[in-house]
Every structure is written in structure tokens, then in C-alpha cells.
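Sequence in, structure out. Go.
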Amino acid sequence: MNLTPKQLHIAQLIRDNLVAHGYSPTMQELADTLGVSKVTVFEHVGALIKKGVLVREPNKARSLSLAEGTSLPDETSSLQFPLVGRIAAGYPIEQFEQSDTLDLEHVFGPRIGSTGATYALQVTGDSMQDEGILDGDYVIVRRADTARPGERVVALLPDGETTLKTFFREPDGSIRLQPANEAFEPIIVKECRIQGIVVGVMRRYDG
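Output:
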């Protein structure tokens, strides 16, 4: 992937904002974050679109996203995942933006394989504890916008909150986001946006 450092940073910012909020940042927000002019951001975004890294829906605000099949360098390292925020496993909570990486060598040691287009989220809450996903765990998420029944997903709810649950489609067409803890009720919504599918769980034990 032949990207300049600035172009890579912009692509990462867009990816992280999509994960945390379900939409891309504005050009002005990118300019403010990078400390450059909006014209400069437009130029970099245009170059990323030409290189096939980004796609944009015409005549629609906040519609930038990574092109299908695109993996950024920090998603394919054998020992690190981008750590882009925390995910609620209790009642949904508002996402926050965080720029960091999860170093698997630090957490688990050297026995790690290839990851593909994945990112990491740290779990808060215990609504998925019966699936072995506990408060403080890290879930490794494969970026995806669709899910099959029974898959554990990162779901963006209509109110803008994000949660980790098991995905089911009900006979009436609604979506049931099922916790794995009897203390929590399922979340029933007409629609939600799938942000990714959980492909792994990691836990660190101290002492």
C-alpha cells in the first residue's frame, strides 16, 4: 500500500471514527485533528480515493469509508491490532475516540498468527459473561457490515450507541441483540448497523 504518512493517518482516523460512531469525520474535523487546512485534507482524501483505499457516496455528508477488502498496515501486523475504543457489554454506552494499539506480544507473548482487516475493542460490563467474554477482556473484531444469526457482533444502535451482543433476526424482521447473562434483557431494534464480527477474545491475568 503506497501511502504517505499523512494519507495513512487520515485513513486510520476515518476508520476509527466509523468504528466509534458509525460515520466518517468531516473534512474540517480531519483538518483540525491534523493541524492542516481543509484544502490539504481534500487533496489527501482525493488521492486516497484514486488509490482505491477510500470510497465516498456522492451527495452525502460523512460518507467516507474504507474500500471493501482494504487492510491498513496496523491491521495486518502479526503482533499488534489498532485499539480504537471501548465497547459496552452491559447497557450500551457512548463510544469514545482513542488512538492506540493493542500489542499482542505484550499481552500474550509471541505465538500469534496473521490477522487480516481486524481491530481490537476492550469490553466494559458483564452482559456477555456466559459466552466467556468478561469485563476488561479484549475482543478482536473482523470488520464487516453484515452478520449471520448467532454471530457475536459490534452493533451500532439507532440512538448512536454501540454494544457487543449476539445477533439474531426475528420472524417479524426486527433484530434481537442477545446478551449472555440472565440479568440483562435482549435489545430489540428495527435496524442497526453492524460494525464487525468478534473473531477472538483475549484476557490478561496479573499475578
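Check: Residues 73-202 form a domain with the Umud Fragment, subunit A fold (CATH 2.10.109.10). The chain has a mean pLDDT of 83.
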